[in-house]
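I have been asked to look over a protein record a colleague put together. Alongside the sequence sits a line of tokens, each denoting a local backbone shape. I have pasted the whole thing underneath without changing anything:
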Amino acid sequence: MKPLALTMGDPAGIGGELTLRAWLELRNTGRCFVALDDPARLAALAHAVGLDVSIREVQQPDLAESVFADALPVLPVRLATPPRAGVPDSANAAAIIGSIERATKLAIAGSVGGVVTNPINKAALYAAGFAYPGHTEFLAALTGAVGQQVMMLASPGLRVVPVTVHASLRDSIAMLTTELILGTARTTAAALRRDFGIMQPRLAVAGLNPHAGESGALGDEETTIIGPAIHALRADDEDVTGPWPPDTMFTTTARKRFDVAICMYHDQGLIPLKTLDMDHGVNVTLGLPIVRTSPDHGTAFDIAGKGVADPSSLIAALGLAAGIAARRQ
């Protein structure tokens, strides 16, 4: 099993501490990863938060496994300036972006099993000229999968896929089309088969309006936009139900009836998932030629450098990436 590549994330956030704590948890499990990060900053951070972590520079990812039990293997990506906990600095944007680019190239080349990304701060990257809304769109451009990428949030008890992602609610509603829902659902179904081993995935499609429109009384998107996508999926022989009233589709009983919820906008899916299991939620990018996962939380600048960051979501992301990589192999 090839190691996973773990990116730096924003060095002013909790990503570095998560990396250190994840290694402490996993060093004896055989779930090997290599950090694409600044070795000096990780060593300083380990000392600052009181973690007994040895750092070992490696020049190739295939050397990571031989040192992983004894030290955190790091492919060096040097920062331009020492980070300050909780204070993002666009001067380090090139290193943050470079970490993602190098990890992606290694995955494309087959040198690593997949990419796991630590959280980034988009505003700091935008200030340095970063032209993408986030990780998902950047990775799609790097891998040539533009237009095919889909964001899934997965936890042990729920998987959700938003059709529209990083846009205002007003813009998200305007962006909804039958074709967009259909493409998202098809990519999701294919990924559930290939990457999750679910041969007959059950898709539940959410409505947009209260009570799924109440037969048009509270909105007609269910009949004019969402319904035609559901009919087309059924014509593909997909197991699909909906449109579901969004306020009842995430109950304990309802969740047993589907493998993934196709949601119309970002918060419609992410609020229930994070409410149910924030600690073990994982962001998975579907539709890429490489494996990519990440924790389902952000940079947490408010607790950065305090030694209290919880690595559970990152560890779950590493575990899911390893599982997907194994299925693809």
